[in-house]
Design a protein that fits this description.
28% helix, 2 domains, globular, alpha+beta, 14 strands, 60s Ribosomal Protein L30, Chain: A
């Protein structure tokens, strides 16, 4: 399941979900012909890790719940074990999505949501590997959509943690400008909602770039909500709004330790203020 560090040259990693040619059933005779049906396979290979599943996981259209075959479960279990024994490896999960799908998740798009679903499975009880799994998204067409299902739907890329750190620690040329823009950031939410408005993504992108380029900086997200909103929304709506912003930043490559959240309900506002410390 971040703004990706480009794949490191020389690191062998590839994933493919293959749509084989249409095949005709061997018992097809005349007008009793059976409908042609495609076959899918799923493979991940990287250095000492290699695994192939006869059936890939899949997602339903406009949904981020991963449905897995026994083969796919075995693959992800093996991959999680590999990551736990190779802390220098970083796995990036890039979820695919189409613009004509409806995003009903709290994430910026279904690609991120799908990548996060696989990340959650991979992490499981082994919280140590969480820092070594990044998520990103990629808009695509419907070529992997079959009978309403996204076959595969998440791509896997490996890189080295040391190489990624070098990129993160490189100062941005416009750091001061980005800091000023980020410090003024206020993200407003619809009444009674904590769903992130996509119109703020460009500004959040600037904040993300600044924090990634300045790993010593910390952003504090102060969420606010009105008393009447809390009556129709279970949970601390102010904090949920701050956490929605944090989730977007973490999903796009910002270190979790660089972000603090707080909520303040019963106020007169319904937004999140970003303060750079």
């Amino acid at each position: 399941m971040s703004k990706l560090v480009p794949p490191i040259s020389g690191i062998a990693c590839f994933l493919w979900v293959t749509l084989w040619s249409w095949w005709l059933s061997s018992n097809k005779f005349g007008q009793d012909s059976q409908s042609a049906s495609p076959s899918f396979s799923f493979s991940v290979a990287h250095d000492g890790f290699q695994f192939e599943a006869n059936e890939p996981f899949y997602f339903l259209r406009s949904d981020a719940v991963a449905y897995m075959s026994d083969d796919a479960v075995s693959l992800l279990d093996s991959l999680a074990n590999y990551l736990s024994h190779h802390p220098d490896e970083v796995l990036t999960l890039t979820g695919t999505y189409s613009t004509d799908e409806t995003n009903k998740t709290v994430h910026a798009n279904l690609g991120i949501a799908r990548a996060e679903a696989l990340k959650e499975f991979l992490v499981g009880e082994n919280k140590n590997v969480a820092e070594n799994i990044k998520t990103a998204s990629q808009q695509t067409d419907n070529t992997l959509l079959y009978t309403g299902k996204w076959m595969g739907g998440v791509n896997f890329t490996f890189s080295k943690a040391t190489a990624e750190k070098e990129v993160e620690d490189t100062p941005a040329p416009n750091a001061e400008k980005a800091s000023a823009q980020a410090a003024d950031l206020i993200i407003t939410f619809a009444q009674g909602s904590y769903e992130l408005d996509k119109s703020y993504l460009p500004k959040l992108g600037e904040l993300r770039d600044y924090l990634r380029s300045n790993p010593s900086e910390v952003a504090t997200l102060h969420g606010f909500s009105q008393k009447e909103e809390e009556k129709v929304q279970s949970g601390d709506l102010a904090e949920l709004r701050a956490k929605a912003v944090r989730r977007y930043l973490v999903d796009n490559g910002v270190r979790r330790k660089q972000i603090k959240v707080s909520g303040r309900s019963a106020s007169t506002a319904h937004h999140v203020e970003v303060i750079i410390e």
